[in-house]
Amino acid sequence: MIRMVDLKTQYEHIREEIDRAVLDVIASTEYINGSAVKQFQAELEKYQGIEHVIPCANGTDALQIAFMALRLQPGDEVIVPAFTYVATAEVIALLGLTPVMVDVDPGTFNIALEKVAEAITPRTKAIVPVHLFGQSADMEALLDLARRRQLYVIEDNAQATGADYTFSNGARKKTGSMGHIGCTSFFPSKNLGCYGDGGAITTSDADLAQQLRMIANHGQNKLYYHAVVGVNSRLDSIQAAILSVKLRRLDTYNAARRAAADYYDAAFSGMPQVKTPARQANATHVFHQYTLQVREGNRDALRQHLADQGIPAMIYYPVPLYRQEAFSRYGAGAELPVTEELCRTVISLPMHSELNPGMQDQIIDAVQAYFQK
Questions:
Q1: CA 204 – CA 46 distance, rounded (Å)
Q2: Which of 246, 243, 238, 199 is nearest to 29 (CA)?
Q3: pLDDT tens digit string along 128-138?
Q4: Which residues pair with 293 in a beta bridge?
Q5: What kind of fold does domain 7-102+109-247 have according to CATH?
Q6: Is the dihedral of CA 30, 33, 39, 40 positive or negative?
């Protein structure tokens, strides 16, 4: 059976370690903020090469807590890509801030630098680059722009944990470690996923880290003494123990995803009807999704054809953020041509660390058969 994400087979390969880690937490009775959470936090700090990791309940909370820590005021503008998951803009609107949606690069699908520059106004306070589908946004240029305009950069790293970005001076950084704050999700289908909900916030700024920790813990830095209004957002110990097991394998998992992407690329390279994902020369792609663009209006029919063959495929994302009813007040009348085109043409094929050439051949054959009809 071909799955969009095969968590079952992945679990079977690491069952003994996972089961032992979970049972150790149960035996310890340290279910909340226990030693497993502290261990995972330290491991992720080392892996990310960053001073502070603040575990939290999910990736959306990570974004919300990040904006709360920056103390932005209602009406302040935050620039986001229009082609992304709703959570990126959702928390901005929830806090009374104004999401300003801009177009994306037609190759990488990440936020377009020139569109960010055009959208900056006196009310702009922050930029949110989303490392979409597993590949870093153009961080060197974005960070330079943000420095010149005195803006915060909050990285949405929910889809790219483990990806690298290389600066022009040769310095290499993990996505999520370059901006003022990084936010990630450990939703089960992510490259580093737990068996429930989970997330984390990252920063190299000690003062920001203190604020983030307080806000995530009811606004307290000492039990029952509340310095700010906060939220209750925790990564539980069982999920942390699972993440520690999987973090040790993350680079191997991501390498398997890249190998699967290479296999897809080779098969589709001679097909003019589809466009394979672009890869930046100075960034590693960890392929949270493998997303084709399908030309000549064939995307929806291709998806149905694949479904008829028992092959799952997903459309990330069918509607631009500014055309969503919930965000109509922020993007009334907007037409961003690259985002509109992507929403009409993208389709994501099965992608996970357990894919093998036999499975991929079935998927590839089905795609090729559709265009040979």
A1: 12
A2: 238
A3: 999 999 999 99
A4: 275, 346
A5: Aspartate Aminotransferase; domain 2 (3.40.640)
A6: positive
Cα angle, residue 144 at apex, residues 139 and 150 outer, rounded to 5°: 115
Sheet of 124-127, strands arranged across? 52-56, 199-203, 181-185, 152-156, 124-127, 77-81, 98-102
How far apart are alpha carbons 288 and 85 in whole angstroms? 13
Question: DSSP string spanning 224-279?
Answer: TEESS---B---BHHHHHHHHHHHTTHHHHHHHHHHHHHHHHHHHTT-TTEEPPP-
Residue 325 CA to its chain's centroid (Å)? 23
pLDDT at 231 over 80: yes
Name the DSSP class of 219. Answer: T
Length of the chain: 373
Q: How far is CA 326 from CA 65, 108, 243, 321, in A?
A: 21, 26, 33, 9
Query: 224 burial class (0-12, 13-18, 19+ CB within 10 angstroms)?
Result: exposed
Whether the pLDDT of residue 25 is over 90: the answer is yes
- Domain boundaries of the chain, sorted by first residue: 7-102+109-247, 250-371
Supply the DSSP symbol for 350.
P
Evaluate if residue 335 carries a pLDDT over 90.
no
148-182 pLDDT per residue, tens: 999 999 999 999 999 999 999 999 999 999 999 99
**What φ, ψ does residue 202 adopt, rounded to 5°?**
-125, 145
> Domain 250-371 classified CATH 3.30.420.40?
no
pLDDT of 331 higher than 90: no
Mean pLDDT of 219-231: 95
Could you give the CA distance from residue 153 to residue 245 in angstroms, rounded to a whole number? Answer: 30
Q: How far apart are CA 352 and CA 246, in angstroms?
A: 14
Q: Which two tokens stand for residue 35?
A: 């030693």
Q: What is the DSSP letter of 151?
A: -
Contact 364, 372 (CB under 8 A): no
Residue type for 290, please? Y
Dihedral sign, CA of 59, 65, 68, 70?
negative
Q: What average pLDDT score do residues 99-124 get?
A: 98
The DSSP code for 125 is E
What's the pTM? 0.97
